[in-house]
Each structure stands twice: as structure tokens, then as C-alpha cells.
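Review form for a predicted model. The reviewer records the input and the model, then writes brief findings.
Reviewer: anonymous (R2)
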Amino acid sequence: MNTLCFAVFAASNLIFAAVKVEARPRLAPLQSQRRKLDSTHFTLIYDARRLSQKQAIEAQSLVEAGWNRCAGLFGQSAVEAEFPLPLHKIQLDLTPSFIGFTGRTFTRYLISQSQSVRSAKGSKKIVKPVERKYQPAAIAVRYAELDYLGLRADYVLTHEIGHVFSGSLYRQAAVEGIGATSLGEGIADWAAGSFGGLPLRPWWGKTLRKTGLWIAPDAFFISGNYHDRPGIDARDLTARYTESALLVQFLVSRFGWPKFHAFALDYSRQRGALDSNESRRRFAQRYKFQWRSKSRDPRQAPDAKSVEATFLQHFGVPWPQLRTEWATEMEEELAPPQQAEQLVLARETYAAIRDYEMWLAGLAQPPAPATHAAIRAAFVRCNSALNKQQTASASRYLQQANRLVKQLRQIRQHKNDGLAKGKGSKRIQSSHRCAY
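Model under review:
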């Protein structure tokens, strides 16, 4: 018996890579310090040493509110597709052990068992299906650390649930070997409907463009001809989440979710991940394997005309016209100055935290606990000020946190240089270990 597992990784930090279907991780077993809490659609598990019962009950209420919001947005067909009867509850881990991002979602995926048999004449090998069943979805969110990470609980929970409700896109992408659902993060952020306590509105686009947190739509959504920046950059991260969410909001409000759902998969086939062509070239230079899938090689730049054609095919309106109408909608809506400043600071702060954590994840040796605690404390103060709409204080605390991170990186770089020069050995190599 061979077990074939199509596991779809819908994590909030989707990175460009060769088509790789990631195996579903084992969540920690329920031990004496682990607690379990059931709601209508979820089974919440958490470590009582890191999360109080009061916080878990709060999460229980918020996660059901997020489910109800997504059910209203995605419609009954999505509910039936992702939550078939008898209902399988989604497992939600509130105290996972990873760094680099805030939440991860593993959408419902197919497990099929098959048996290889010979044809009657014995000349042809036939794969005969034996059993087909779906593994329920699972979500992990660093709920106990949201004061440091800066994301509001209702936002991050609903964002991850949005991935579950759009799970059919991820499953089909995995089956076809596409490797990415281009607008996946945008769909999830559209489902969340807010960021930093502010409701998702068209004026965000105008504000982000004026402050440099925006990539030209033709380059980002169509051709891939834009310059990406090293690390977790605020502009690039904001484009993947917020700029994409604004486009999703515009298209769904005009054409409806069912039509957009059909478009999203065709668009992903042509555009692939929303990476720049620069990153594709770097990836192609590093990985020189032969692409055997029938889908387009993700190392190749997208064909702009083919990408544009998906808009006309599904919406009956050419991309240039849609882009112009979308831009007009964003420009015409008034941007409240206080909220605009708060939005920009919130996006810059979260990008700074993500960049710091991704750098930490690549260290062979973690920094001194006191140094790490000082950096976390500065980000906590920044996020606390943002929640109180004290943007001047938040900006000051963000600058302080960035200075501490810069100093730590410089110290670590000097140590690396010393090892390379003094001992003739290799520099400390990055690893992909993500642990506290």
C-alpha cells in the first residue's frame, strides 16, 4: 500500500520556491501543561504556562466570530467544500513554537491510498484507488505573543481562517504543480477586513503609495518587473498582503466571490508567486534542475500578455481599464490623517519584527537573552503606543527597536568576520531552524 499525501502549505509568509508540498507537522501532544478548549468549529489547544484560561476563552470567542465572518464572505459553497458533514473541527494551537511569522495554516488536504496492480495481460501497471479521505485543517497562531508581534487577535485569527475557506485554491494549485496561489495572502487579508484596528478601505492604497509602501500594479500583479529588496522589506511585505487585499476587495465587490474564485486559479497559473523577476533569476542560478511538471516553470518570468488575458477572460473587462478604475476609487476616497499615519507605522513595525525574526531564525547561535529581551520590549512599547493611537511615541519606540537590532547585527557580523579571518574557518552558517 502506498500513501500519497497532498499537503497544502498556506502559511502567512509564503516564499517563492520550487514546487514543494510541505508535510503536515505533528502538533505537540496534550500533556499535563497542555489544555484543550472546544468551540463549535474549533478545538483550541494551548500551554497553560504561556497562556491563561481567560486568554484562551477570549480566543474561543474571536475565532468563532472570524469563522462567521468568513462564512458570510465566501458563501455556502465554500462552507460545504471546506467543512463537509460530519463536521471535522479545525485544530487551533495558540502556543506553537516557531519564529519568523505569526500564524500558519494547513488547509484541508486529500489523503488517498492506492494500490499498484497489473492489468489482465500483465503488461501494464495500473494504480487502483483504494481509499480517499480528507485531513481536517489546522491553524497555529502565536496568540500569547501578540503584544510583541503587534497584530490584533481578531485580525490574525480571521486571516488564518480565510486561508482555510479558500483552501480549494491551494489544493488545486498543489495538484497542478503551480506551487503558489498568487493572491492567497491578499484573499486572507480581505477576509480579515482590517489591519492595526483600521477597517480595510480604498484610501489605504493612496496612503501607501505616497509613503513608498506600494509597488506599481503593472509590475507587481502582471509582469514581475520590479526591484525587490533584501530581507523582509516593508514595501514588499505590504504589497503581498495589503496591496493584494485591496485588489481582491475591488474585484470581489464588483464581480462577486464565485467569479473571482474562478479567476484566481487561472491567474495563479499565469503569474505564479508574486515575486520579482530578479528573484526568479537568482533562484534559477542557484537551482538548475529540469522542470518536469506540465505547469509553467516558476523560475521563468510570467508572460505579461497571458496574465492580463485572465482578467478579460473572467471579468469581461481588460486589465488596463480595471486598473484605472481601481486607482480612481482609491484616489477619490478621503484618507483620515491620523489613521493614515497609524496604518503606515503599523505596516513598518510589523515588517521590522518579521525581518528581525527571520534573521534570528538563520543564526547558528541565538543572541544573549538580555539583548533579545530589550529588543522585544522596545517593540512591545511601540505596539502598545500604536494601539492607543499615540503615533509619535510609536515612531520613537520603533526607531529605538531598529537601533537595537542594527547594533546586534553589527556585533554578530564582527564576530563572523573574526572567525573567518582569525581561524580560517567558514563564517557562521545560517540554518533554517525556527525555535525559541
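Findings: Residues 362-422 form one domain.
Further findings: The beta strands are 2-5, 34-38, 42-47, 90-93, 103-106, 109-118, 125-135, 138-141, 194-195, 198-199.
Recommendation: see findings above.
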